[in-house]
Design goal:
single chain, mainly alpha, globular, disordered N terminus, transmembrane
Length: 239
């Protein structure tokens, strides 16, 4: 009887396919603390290494990178709170945020490193100081890695379907477009030089492509989760 209760309690706190215990006060909490320290370092870097963006309308929130980092910070803060309190409700809210933050960070890393490899001037204007390598990784790589680890090892399977995922990605993409156009009205420049090279129809294409890429990244995360952790049908058969 005690074994049955222990198993029921374990299932309550961890989905059958979830590879590691989370929320927990063990290595789950350790990962989330490390992630939040990394994010704090990145935000601090923006303050102690100011550039013209610091005094412009929209601050660094003009950058998709910083918006994604902010969402990742919210996600990991909720994850750590769930670890501390062992609250399934907070854990569920964290997982809901991760449905957006993880694919967004994958998108940010793919676009940034892809465009930078092709032509650095597309993502970094001439007047912008070059980032230290540690800061560059902190903005454009580490958030993705932390969220991937959390998604694949410390979270239940993804539940959002393709159509709602695409709709959400389109809303995010075109809301961001509206935001940077508003910032442009005040500042007279775009945060990423590539935007200045495109006309309206090309920007529509870019943001639509980005939304599709974000949707595909979310689908890929879900598929790879199944490869790493198994599928629900298989887990049921094995029980």
């Amino acid at each position: 009887m005690s074994n049955v209760k222990a198993k029921a309690k374990d299932i309550l706190h961890r989905h059958p396919l979830q590879r590691a215990q989370s929320p927990s006060r063990g290595w789950s909490a350790a990962l989330h603390v490390v992630a939040l320290c990394s994010f704090a370092y990145s935000f601090r870097y923006l303050v102690v290494n100011p550039n013209p963006i610091n005094d412009s309308y929209g601050w660094h929130m003009q950058y998709l990178t910083i918006l994604g980092l902010s969402l990742a910070t919210i996600t990991m803060t909720l994850a750590l709170l769930a670890d501390i309190t062992l609250s399934p409700r907070i854990f569920a809210v964290k997982n809901a945020f991760a449905l957006t933050s993880a694919p967004m960070e994958v998108l940010i890393s793919a676009l940034y490193w892809g465009l930078r490899a092709y032509d650095t001037s597309l993502v970094l204007p001439d007047w912008a100081p070059r980032l230290a390598l540690s800061a560059d990784f902190g903005f454009h790589l580490f958030p993705t890695l932390y969220l991937l680890i959390d998604t694949w090892l410390l979270s239940p399977p993804r539940t959002i379907r393709l159509a709602p995922s695409l709709l959400l990605s389109l809303v995010i993409a075109f809301t961001y477009w509206f935001w940077i156009e508003r910032c442009y009205q005040f500042n007279g420049f775009y945060p990423y030089p590539i935007f200045a090279l495109l006309d309206t129809s090309q920007r529509i294409g870019l943001f639509t492509f980005s939304a599709v890429l974000m949707t595909l990244s979310g689908t890929f995360l879900g598929q790879l989760y199944g490869v790493m952790n198994g599928h629900l049908d298989n887990s049921k058969k094995s029980q």
